[in-house]
Amino acid sequence: MRALLLAGGMGSRMFPFEKYWQKAFLPVGNKPNALRLIEMLGSLGVQDIHVVSGYKSGCAKHALRNNSGIGVVDSTAGLGETLSSLCESGGWTLVVHGDIFITRQDLATMLELPSGNAAAAALLQSNNGEFRSGDWICAKAVEDKVEAFWGHPRGNYANARSCGVFLLGPKALPYLSAALPHFENVPSGGMPPPGFWLENCLQTALNDGLPVKARYVKSSFVDMDFPWDYLEANQLCCQAESGTSAVGKPVLGDNCMIGDNVLFKGCSIVGSGTVIRNNVVIGENCIIGNNCVIEDYCKIAANTVIGNNCKLGFTAEVGGVFMDRAAAVHHCELYGIVGTAADIGAGTTGSTLRFDDADTSQLVQGKRYTHPLSRMNFIGDYSRTGVNTSFLPGIKMGANCAIGPGVVLGKDLPHNTLLSLKQNLIETAWGPQKYGWADQGR
């Protein structure tokens, strides 16, 4: 069986991490997500794998530079035509979106070939209140049969979300190059944008009377469209990977040094060459990369990923994702995502709870979204903060930004921006006379 991994989307809703990343190659558990999927497919016996790229294709070529058997194809002729040319004409092809977090067990369910005259199979997530159908490509399905695909429908139109994993047979291939240039099946007033969707191709096949089989995820699944989705994927990865170690015992790489009074609260994975010392506390299910220095009363929350070559110093309290070469020292407190080589100044704090305890909604491209993790803070790659800066809940700071000392950031900061505080100082005469002392000459 051949597998095609889609990794060409612009990921514009992933701000501030779209500046330097193709979102399918964002690191999940310190490994590019698309590479994680490729390795998962290989463990399931799928060796004929191609990556369909486009936007920031250099990210794909860099991440796969040591995987000579994986072909990277730039989708220059249009995604439908590219897929049509790459799919096995007489067999079945697995197509997987590269920006999803999925378990190996759920991916394995898609390798079983459908029986009968089915054109395809699609992986779905049943709607049990975990997502809003109006935010996603969805499906109406009855048991193992897809009845219709819908684009961002109202709740009564669909009962499942499309997970971006498809098994395409020979009967589905003609629809790849003959799809409408917009999503056809939307509610009245749905306003679909131009674009190519596999679900739209399969809807045309359904219209022509060809069956599409439904299969369902049974474990954790995340479609990484927003930065909080990316954070959730890393948390789930921590639980999945650290949970395989012995209960309460960290798994240590080569040449690690664990100093005095270091407390591991549960299972964690620590990379090679990392130094952890002097009263550090590490929560359950953490993944810590290679060649890090973590010391001096630092505290790491459960389900946190620390990248390679990171530095966490005196009383830094962190949780979420710290990408490679990020640093935070001296009384910092941050929960969320800190981008590559970001430098967090002394006393930087991030708040994650509103005064009214309400959810933190995020305005993205004119629409508001709410997620349990949208209240976290998101700091872009290669940015830095000055001493005693603060972030309000849910604030996103762009890449290549700098914040001056004492700033309270209350709104998102665009890429390539310096934000400094202009003080309004009042100078007044003061001295002993203010305390009742007379002049010395009297």
What does the model show?
- By secondary structure, the protein is α/β, with parallel strands linked by helices.
- The protein has two domains: 2-225, Spore Coat Polysaccharide Biosynthesis Protein SpsA, Chain A (Alpha-Beta Complex), CATH 3.90.550.10; 245-419, Hexapeptide repeat proteins (UDP N-Acetylglucosamine Acyltransferase, domain 1, 3 Solenoid), CATH 2.160.10.10.
- The strands form eight sheets. Strands 14, 16, 17, 19, 20, 22, 23, 25, 27, 32 and 35 form an eleven-stranded parallel beta sheet that branches. Strands 1, 4, 5, 6, 8, 9, 10, 11 and 12 form a nine-stranded mixed beta sheet that branches. The chain has a six-stranded parallel beta sheet with strand order 15-18-21-24-26-28, with no helix packed on it.
- The chain is globular, with a radius of gyration of 25 Å.
- It starts with a strand and ends in a 23-residue tail after the last strand.
- The relative contact order is 0.10.
Give a brief outline of the structure.
This protein is an alpha/beta fold and 442 residues long.
